[in-house]
Amino acid sequence: MALNVEEIRSDFPILKRDVRGVPLVYLDSGATSQKPSVVLDAERSFYETSNAAVHRGAHALAEEATDAYESARAAIAGFVGASSEEIVFTKNATEAINLVAYAFSNATDKHRQGIEVDQRFVLRPGDNIVVTEMEHHANLIPWQEVCAKTGATLKWFGITADGRLDMESNPIDQNTKMVSVVHQSNILGTINPIEDIMRMTHDVGALGFVDMCQSVPHMPVNVHATGADYAAWSGHKMLGPTGIGLLWGKSELLNAMPPFLSGGSMIEMVNMDHSTYAPAPQRFEAGVPMVAQAVGLATAVGYLEKIGMDNVAQHEHELTEYLLNRLHELPGVHIIGPPNSIDRGSAVSFVVDGMHPHDVGHIMDSRGVAVRVGHHCAWPTCRRFDVPATTRITPYLYNTHADIDAAVDAIVAAQEFFGVLPESEKVGL
Amino acid sequence: MSDDLYQEIILDHYKNPRGVNALDHALAESHQVNPTCGDEVTVWVGKGDNGSLDVAYVGQGCSISQASASVMSELVAGKDAATVSKLEDAFMELMQSKGNLEADEDVLEDAVAFAGVSKYPARIKCALISWMALKDARIKAGLTDHASDEEEEN
Ligand SMILES: Cc1ncc(COP(=O)(O)O)c(C=O)c1O
CATH number of the domain at B8-142, please? Predict the structure, then answer.
């Protein structure tokens, strides 16, 4: 079913504003999405009616707030086919990835002290952790740190010239303990064959993590069906507030992990010299959590469910195909990533001959078109393609073909302004 | 369109950069990167004639970062450490001005073209990166001026 984009747009107050004296064309949803009024209203209404610290105190507001928080967890879990106990609230996806990475280094530390821990999280020199060359830094650096602390080795899948994972470079072997891969690349747009990779992961007895920051907001995802053991994503990229991220993990695994942040709310029993911990997810939610954000995100999930994630994905697919076709027509413009829309999401990176991405983005901005420039927190990926940075367009459910046209016109204007428009194109202008 | 940012002088220095070179008699070098966008510049400094500075650089990045390096190298070449230190301060002040400062063309020459950059917070670092490399290399090389450089540290 085609989306009623005009109706959707009217739900997003920010899309009505001007920037630099012209109407805003927001094409940077890969960095963060805009928020519909219902999400903002839900947060405000929580504070106006039910605000209290959750899981503490027995008064009416505390009960209502706890109920709102836990209902939000259930709604978000349901959105990805998970159950509530499998969902941990974190501040963002980065923290969720660190939470699992620290399980490895903390378990390894404790093991070295002679403390009994689950051996699946203990790393030794000779063990390895596998990522890909297209990871966001959030799914690379935590694993680099784990390796530095434990003596394990980091290995990775390479990337082919057209932006796909190079399956021939598969480094998974009998010594692999953890495989962490991105579902959809935030810089290339590639959708990776995670079911296959998770199967290979489990064949060698390793654990599998999928970075779903760019998939859960854009397509229907059932976390169990992917075969993964863990996944992480952020609320702010799926119409929700900032300050809330999600970790999904199989209950058995979450309960086998040592805690990450420790303090109040995550305990079972506390003595002066030792403590025991609550079962997951509370074990990983130390301190007073982000209740209003959880309520806002649950509302965002409801909004997306009403539209239907199949429809969101279909709309994005059409826009992406249109965008790719238009970019292919532009002389001097090169797409970095899969050139076609097969197994590809809406993140479209490109470079312009003779121009630095910063300058491209700046001139697009002067025409109201908001895009991302830089290495997109995927510096090794840029290096793989021998570019210092790219310009990236990421349409979402509220974007239109006219937005894509505005972006393409702005790219041509940038080329004209910098005098780098290839001769053939100038004639037609 | 973006005319306040992309002055002719900037585009000219971007397309025809001056001073791009390594320095064979360099006393020190400084490599600076802008981690948000990957701009890079390496600046070398050495002793020239009569207590003046010799400066060279190589870099890659956006038009603002590369033009700024080119203008910087042209502006400071052959000047003594005290003068260079004052130029660094004047340029820094211009970049922090949010567009509210009348730049002194007698002092900053072509570098006044970057006044418009100060209105775009995301681009200020681009314009400053070569100047930061210059200062760092100068201090490493001991090519400093007591009066002006120490004043800064206080
Ligand atoms: C693929 C991917 N992974 C991880 C992240 C990190 O998300 P956050 O900054 O919300 O923690 C992002 C967001 O930029 C992303 O696109």
Answer: 3.90.1010.10
